[in-house]
């Protein structure tokens, strides 16, 4: 049994324009101690799927289908008190912006100590000592004195270290990281990622890592889910995804990454933009932007299949290292097949096309 199993999860938001199905029937699992990345463009559903794990979908959003099984317990059937007990103890989250994750009117030490007291039967003094230990562990200098300082008295990188200390204070089994280094400069980003990896290994914590940075994912994760328009379009180990991507969307993402020694005048781009999820395209949701699309792609929704065998398989049914893709190339429907030697095209400065 995997640590976490998400099956056919559906999350909707009710807006004036209509119902937005932000997460549309995704399934995946996370093994104990694993580093799983969830990647895709903004609006793909990565953050919504992550918030659902902790029951943090608020109005006008609603989880309308599926199951989230953590240690074989369906989180969606938990009461509010059970969810409060779960959050911060067994599952914790590191948010993108530490300023919004920290309460500005309480000292950082008291906020971490409160999280410890909420889940552990300890004295105030023991919670304080544990907090100082954590602050030292994440690299906050003079932690004993700075226990009483407020969030605004720390730099952005230090604030994120404090959020990590709070998230790991009860040694959770699963840590959900929602682009935790987006607001940081490159040097601090590397330090934070190294710290996360080191502490997670120490506490034997699995990580669901939400990111748009494919370089970070390549260095830090074991497997990758690629999301597009609320759906999973590819799942693979890191090596398989980077050396042999199967879905045209993933190929487009890879082609857009700048590389050392790259002599292209312009980076490749994926034409168009992500679809409106109030009224998504029929068939494959990527087909309006796909350079390889055929007529069948506009009418048939491709299932996730094993890219090697063409056998339909959900991520929960397939072997953890199986390479899955939702593309008609692997269902045997496409007539011409895909030629990934042709890079996804984008317009050049003169309005023409460049490879």
From TrEMBL:
InterPro entries: AAA+_ATPase, ABC_Ni/Peptide_Import, ABC_transporter-like_ATP-bd, ABC_transporter-like_CS, Oligopep_ABC_C, P-loop_NTPase
Domain ABC transporter stretches: 4-254
BP GO terms, sorted: peptide transport
Keyword annotations: ATP-binding, Cell membrane, Membrane, Nucleotide-binding, Transport
GO CC aspect terms: plasma membrane
Statement: the UniProt record of this protein carries the keyword Cytoplasm: no
SUPFAM superfamilies, per database record: P-loop containing nucleoside triphosphate hydrolases
GO MF term list: ATP binding; ATP hydrolysis activity
CDD domains in UniProt: ABC_NikE_OppD_transporters (cd03257)
Position of the signal peptide: none
Main location: membrane
Topology of the protein relative to the lipid bilayer: Peripheral membrane protein
NCBIfam families (UniProt xref): oligo_HPY (TIGR01727)
Protein name from the UniProt record: Oligopeptide/dipeptide ABC transporter, ATPase subunit
Organism taxonomic ancestry: Archaea, Methanobacteriati, Methanobacteriota, Stenosarchaea group, Halobacteria
